[in-house]
Amino acid sequence: MNPRDYWQMWRARGLRLPLTHFLEAHAFDLRRGTDTATRLTPEQYEAEGETFERSTFYGAAWTSVIGQWFDWVAERVGPEFSSRTFVDVGCGKGKPLIVWAEKAARAGATMPICGIEYYAPLADIARTNVEHLGLSERITVITADALDVEPEIFGQRPVLFFFNPFDAVAMRAFIEGVAQLDPIVIYGNPVHGDVIEESGFTCVHETSGWHNGLFVRAYELAAGAG
Ligand SMILES: C[S@@+](CC[C@H](N)C(=O)[O-])C[C@H]1O[C@@H](n2cnc3c(N)ncnc32)[C@H](O)[C@@H]1O
After folding, report:
1. How many structural domains compose the chain?
2. What pLDDT was estimated at residue 1?
3. Is the CB of 163 under 6 A from ligand 1?
4. pTM for this one?
5. Does residue 58 line the site of ligand 1, with CB under 6 A?
6. Residue 59 CB–ligand 1 contact under 6 Å
7. Residue 87 domain-assigned (yes or no)
8. Long-range pairs, 76-80, Cβ under 8 A, ≥24
9. What dihedral do alpha carbons 42, 45, 51, 54 form, nearest 10°?
10. Which domain range does residue 95 map to?
11. Is the CB of 128 under 6 A from ligand 1?
12. pLDDT for the residue 3
């Protein structure tokens, strides 16, 4: 992590942001020897084309936020939890996959865990992180545009995790393709939540706070939709 990033955070938001970033991002890597905290700016992507144009850029979800949503989904679905594939759509360096796998191990939950990342260098880092932690048997990382993946591979009623991966057009195309699976959608920084709702889903839970990293919504198909 570049000290300059901490300096910029401090200038933008005062002490709270760099401190929280250390605890919620950097400390995750220090504890595990992984590489997830460092963001990728648009200039660092050596990518072009429609997927890149519609994409946001890599930054990891905060550790406690992922954990909190694991707990919420576990309670929401109860005994079915292990049958719900967890999919991080735009998985970047794989942090939500790792948090889900670690918490699942502690809870005795055995759901498949899968990440999709179109930018190959990020997907490779995710695989390296997963291998380093001995989680390769638990976690599959697919290098692909999420819009090109056959939704059936997620099984019925998957848990789809998004941390603001793409624009409204891509979100609409993706969500309409997966609605038939009756997923739970966990959407961090849900800037295109209106698109999810227009596709027949309703917000069933929300968290928010002083930073948009804390703003997360859960959606399920509205009764009678799908
Ligand atoms: C804000 S980051 C979130 C990373 C990860 N989900 C996390 O929370 O730590 C969004 C990621 O989505 C990826 N992405 C954007 N559009 C995508 C697409 N169409 N298919 C697959 N990945 C995509 C980006 O490359 C980036 O790594």
Report:
1. 1
2. 67
3. yes
4. 0.97
5. yes
6. yes
7. yes
8. 76/184, 76/204, 76/205, 76/218, 77/184, 80/157
9. -10
10. 63-221
11. no
12. 82
